[in-house]
Amino acid sequence: MLSASFPPEIGGIQAHLGNLAPALAAQGHQVKIVTLRREKGQRIRDAYEGVEVIRVPQLKLPKLQTAQYLALATAVLITQRLRGQADVVHYHTYWPDAFTAFLVNKFVPVVYTAHESRFLIMAEQARFQKRLQLALRPFQTVIAPSTELMMVAQKFGVDPARSIFIPNAVDSEKFSPAVARGRVRARYGIPADHDLILCPRRLVPKNGVEFLIESLPLIRQSCDRISVVVAGDGPERQKLEQRVRELSLQNSVIFAGSVANADLPAFYADADVVVIPSLMEATSIAGLEAMASACAVVATDAGGLPEIIDDGRTGLLVPPRDPNALAAAIIRVLKNPQLRTQLGKAARARVESEFTWAHVAGETARAYEQAIALWHGRAITGLAHA
Fold this sequence. Notes:
The protein is α/β, with parallel strands linked by helices. It has helices at residues 12-26, 65-82, 101-104, 117-123, 126-136, 147-155, 183-188, 209-222, 237-246, 264-270, 285-292, 305-308, 323-335, 337-354, 357-375; strands at 32-36, 45-48, 51-56, 89-91, 110-113, 141-144, 163-165, 195-199, 226-231, 253-257, 273-276, 297-300, 316-318.
């Protein structure tokens, strides 16, 4: 697997890789991760939960760093193939990694998972469309964690027979209703009689946190004892903090900054409602973590969120960019403890039946087999409805 980002970095792709690779290994596959060495102290050859990790080093030459990474990553992948240690290469980041596939594919089958919101953003801009079409050309199989992403890939020339929808998943033992409560409330001094609204989002425009902030004055008209914890950081933080001050919400909103994945279960354990106000989304890992924790989730009807949340049964869906609808759904959950419990239990049950890493690893291995068959010119069956 090739990805410019990998744990201990924090993010959705990093979390996906950090779970998928060990799950594949547990099913008997040999898995290696090729990634970028971010810190000087990191070992070039390392291990992560039983999976070998090769971290490609970089010289401090800012204008050449991308070229260095691409050249060295390509050399590592081809070398692994020539040594008989790679049957397939799975790409997880589009830029800059995907452009190495033109050369790597001459030696080994290649698969790409379209995780990134950047992929959707670029697809909407005419100046990037030819680049996307070119970048997708070498891949035998394209995996998408939402049907929206799969359709966009097909729009840019990916044969439907070579595309497959495989959702994200979650560690349902780590994220569980059995996690001890009270730690986050104690850390931030949140009163016991306050409802805790959790928003586990990076602070970037596509995650729509601004619309949650705009909904809070409406929520406070019906639920005056609330505390909001925003777990995540990003370039929008200063703007959002300024808006909180303008709305005189400083005593209600806590910006927790980046939270390590190991610490997140405690945040979900203390939440009365989890809000995912995204404008675009794949299969939301944060949404799945909340569902596995038996939280009531209020999310936007965007991207892959409707594919994990059955509106009214495993959570509530509202239109994106609509603070009024968001406020109404949050108030409905906070005012109805029975509904909150029902949504949480149903969400947990759906995770256990559909969104386990063992299931995703099995479907991914099947996609690898199909890619290998295509590369060798053998006939395949359609993947799109797997």
